[in-house]
From TrEMBL:
Protein name, as recorded: DNA repair protein RadC
InterPro entries assigned: MPN, RadC_JAB, RuvA_2-like, UPF0758, UPF0758_CS, UPF0758_N
Family to which this protein belongs: Belongs to the UPF0758 family.
One biological process term in Gene Ontology: proteolysis
Gene for this chain: radC
Pfam families assigned: RadC, UPF0758_N
Amino acid sequence: MYMIKDMPKFERPREKVRKYGVTSLNTYELLAIILRAGTHEESAIDISRKVIRELSSLGELREKTIDELTSIKGIGQTKAITILSALELGKRVLENKRDKIQITCPETVFDLLNYDLKDLKQEVLIALYLDLKTNLIAKKEIFRGSLNQSLVHPREIFKYAVKYSAYQLILVHNHPSGDPYPSKHDIELTNIIEKAGQMMQIYLLDHIIIGDQNYLSINAHQKKRKSY
């Protein structure tokens, strides 16, 4: 049994942070610091490696429940809660930073939401509510599941637009397949929300689909099709 205290001092995660900074650590070392301690049988690093091996991708860790984490040997409720709390704190720090950003192009939307939406196993529809100058006012998850225009009512989208006094909005959703090409339902939903927005004078700027490290703007896609 090889515990962290038995490691050479310069190899220990906390010592590496002190000397080289937190970016010098790999993923399992970061997780080991969050776990703080191992068990009588395994070090925190051993347990962290085991947790990482259980994941098909790092993003999957965000979807784990307490029960799923505690099913891994060496992870009790306290450690599971600590992991999930650390993930939520990181998410909120990023969201706080994003609240002050101006949405200037589809790439800005991708940079904002790629972390939230990549690697998810189901589709999630998010609305970004903007002021007249395209500054972000609020971000709201509207729907989670199999996205279909018949399941997403414009009322759910525009009630938040009214609440936040938004002038315009952008819809964003992911394709778990990794291919951001729009489906028939994606186009139909976009057209429905666009028409509803025109009636309410709350305008739909775009609908962005996020795939596997790529994205597609339905606005640009439809303009390109009309040009042929």
